[in-house]
Amino acid sequence: MIKHHLNPEILMSYAAGNSSSSVSLIVASHITVCSKCRKEVSFYEDIGGKVLEESLSVETKAETLDIILSKLDGINSELISNTIIENSSFKNIPVVLQKMLPEGNSLTENWKRGIGGIKYFNIDMESVHKDSHARMLSIPPGKKLPNHGHEGQELTLVLEGGFSDENGYYNVGDVAIEDENNIHTPIADSEEGCLCLVVYEGNLKFKGVFGPILNFLKI
Amino acid sequence: MFLENYIETVDFSDKLPCIEYKQEKHYLVLKPAVKDKELTYLISRVADFKDKSAFSDLFKLVGPRIKGYLMKLGSSDIVAEDLLQEVMLTVWRRSETFDRSKAAVSTWLFTIARNKRIDMLRKEIRPQLDPLDPMLTPNQEDSADNVYGFKQESLKITNAIDQLPNEQAVLIKMTYYEDKSHAIIANELKIPLGTVKSRIRLASTRLRKLLEGQIYD
Q1: Are A65 and B134 within 8 A, CB to CB?
Q2: ipTM of this predicted complex?
Q3: B38 in the Ramachandran plot: left (φ > 0), alpha (ψ -120 to 50) or beta?
């Protein structure tokens, strides 16, 4: 049962079509497993439908319809294909996220090693938003991440295991939302550790004794 | 409503007997619920029979609105025409996947137009929910009829937005009509980012009451 949800402003931006590609990735992944937030997105898309309906009509060019009609022949209908990816070593990753991970062989071969047994993989969003980042993070059981703040918003979706921080325990499917200025100290589940998708804007800012080193290493 | 201004070019009287319409000056005005039903009918003709005549009627009904929407969000006339072509070709390709029990026609068209606009203008990946993902959790069943979209008597969205306090209304308009992120909105209005977010949250609760509350009344 999902306890930690995305908030209205994030879901509305996703539905309206103006969230960044990395935020879109985490929203699409979360609403795959969260019917409550998926329903809320439908509501905001219904608003978009009404916005479209109530938009001022602008006359189309006289030839537009003929151009479109001339392109119809030869177009096959596109039934949405079932896109189960066979080779992934992780069973609990939504398809939308799997598509962004290395193809074929498992993610495990592509992990980069951070400090303290933490492994990560940076997802290339090919985004025009240069300061918008997405990464997979695998944290060993009981491992405490250095407490850190953010220049921008950080969203974390739990895919396997879980973690806890000052706001409580986050289970599979839960999303943690950390705004700029918040400082938190996540600890991975003591038995299962934590596999999660993290997206953030700007740079992470690590506090404490090792902060400068961590900032330099950009784990 | 999709039909005002353009209905005079389309004659439904022989094939759509369920429409109740009235002649007003040069316009025919359809009841909103019927409108959605007729658009659904045209899409089903396209899906089942690849009916180009139904497709053309659909274009005449929704094309100018889609173009208007795209231009409102900043596309030039030329770009809006290109995007409109893309949208209509996608409608043709995907007509069989349109499911009335899941979304209103206007919502479906909106999501297609939204995605085409992002694809073409931003040239970036925009991850989307995969509707066939085996991990997809079942939908919540919270009402007997489980109707998606708003009821026919619901407020127009423009009226609903007008009922919001001005400071909230302006944020919803910037989100839907101007394609602006919260950070850009905060910067332009010179208010803190946290204030933008909390006002949008208040506005969404209020919009829900105004628009969706009527479903269960």
Answers
A1: no
A2: 0.84
A3: alpha
